[in-house]
Amino acid sequence: MKTPVYLDYQATTPVDPAVLEAMLPYFREKFGNAASRNHSYGWVAEKAVEIAREQVAAVVGANAKEIVFTSGATESDNIALKGAVEMYTSRGDHIVTVQTEHKAVLDTCKYLERSGRAQVTYLAPRKDGLVDLDALREAITDKTVLVAIMAANNEIGVIQPLAEIGALCREKGVLFFTDAAQAYGKIPLDVEAMNIDIMAISAHKIYGPKGVGALYVRRRRPRVRLAPLIHGGGHERGMRSGTLPVPLIVGLGKAAELCAAELEREAARETALRDKLWAGLQKELDYLHLNGHPTQRLPGNLNVSFEFVEGEGLMMAMKELAVSSGSACTSASLEPSYVLKALGVGDDLAHTSIRYGIGRYTTEEEIDFAIAKTVEAVQKLREMSPLYEMAKEGIDLNSIEWTVH
Ligand SMILES: *Cc1c(COP(=O)(O)O)cnc(C)c1O
Asked: Are 327 and 142 contacting, i.e. CB atoms less than 8 angstroms apart?
């Protein structure tokens, strides 16, 4: 077993060897420009791109023509939001989104607000991280152009009720955009059944290369049009100009195909590992808090807060595990995770949260190791905690009047 054990699959994933194999010829002999119409180098590249387009579309029940290749989900999020706002000014200028969205969505919304192009409603999620459908219904006005709600959250893994949100958007006549970077290829998604109009996808979250992604843009019932951010050449139906990175696109296509082929089996395998991890932690430790809905979540995500430990100390004590923390101690700010805050998790518990991300290459042995290392670290830190001692003795910490002399 290699350490540190990689348990950060929501941050990124390694490229699957079969994906790399598929890409290599397009760096070497098949190097043509997919837009070259006059010779076989171009045709070969174009053919490869069209196969990838079909592979990406098939995973979510879309048509290949509805897939636009981009540099990743951040760019896809930008095109979706800015492109819709610019295209549909006659309909209105209002966006509804949620406080727990990825920064690629939130920062783009902030930009649109600041520049006076849009008004944005940021819905508070419920305590379990799910969107309150009644609050969403109330937030949609006759000026609303688009609802932006992610499929699965990158920190806490919760899966939003996409079919219900899609049905509501359709009923209200507003576009439904979902950032599916975490959900695509991991859980069943269907753009028709869920009434999804626009969807962001990233290759490096599904064992493909970094720097490539896609945007699904519905072509029929309704036909969605998005203003481009990048002009020049008119590639990708005018929505995203620029010479296509053929090897990366081939990699994304292959990665999508592999995920789809193994989706159910892999979801079951990761769910079992995740449940084993959670049961193992609960068996040895008390005062644990699961962040996010207990079952309505990605198979490979567990987000736990450890009461009575200090966040930075916990990360330091778990150096053999490559996990993420809800405490932003590595960055300049000491602000804990805005996602956990939006769920109503207090600062202390947000600082001691750990995200375990399980993926394709995670083994049972690694899960056992993660349980042992976490238990060891938490017990060691709690031995130094007078508050933990008091809680164990049954003293209600909230009843104590702390006085400073
Ligand atoms: C990773 C991620 C992104 C950003 O994707 P890139 O391809 O790295 O730009 C956006 N949204 C979510 C939910 C993500 O998990």
From this structure: no
Residue 106 is assigned to a structural domain of this protein: yes
pTM beyond cutoff 0.70: yes
* C-alpha closest to that of 316 among 380, 383, 385: 380
Number of structural domains found in the chain: 2
Beta strands in 238-348, from DSSP E residues, in sequence order: 288-290, 301-306, 321-322, 324-325
Q: Is residue 108 part of a domain?
A: yes
Instruction: Please indicate whether residue 329 is annotated as part of the active site.
Output: yes
Domain presence at residue 245: yes
Strand-pair partners of 199: 178, 216
Residue 73 CB less than 6 A away from ligand 1? yes
Which tens digit of pLDDT belongs to each residue from 334-375? Answer: 678 999 999 999 999 999 999 999 999 999 999 999 999 999
Q: Are 183 and 161 in contact (CB under 8 A)?
A: no
Q: Give me the phi and psi of 339, to 5 degrees please.
A: -70, -50
* Domain range enclosing 223: 17-259
For residue 202, give the ligand 1 atom closest to its CA: 7
For residue 404, is it within any domain? no
The alpha carbon of 102 and the centre of ligand 1 are apart by a number of angstroms equal to: 7
CA distance 311 to 39: 59
Question: Would the CB of 102 count as within 6 Å of ligand 1?
Answer: yes
Distance CA 111, CA 105 (A): 10
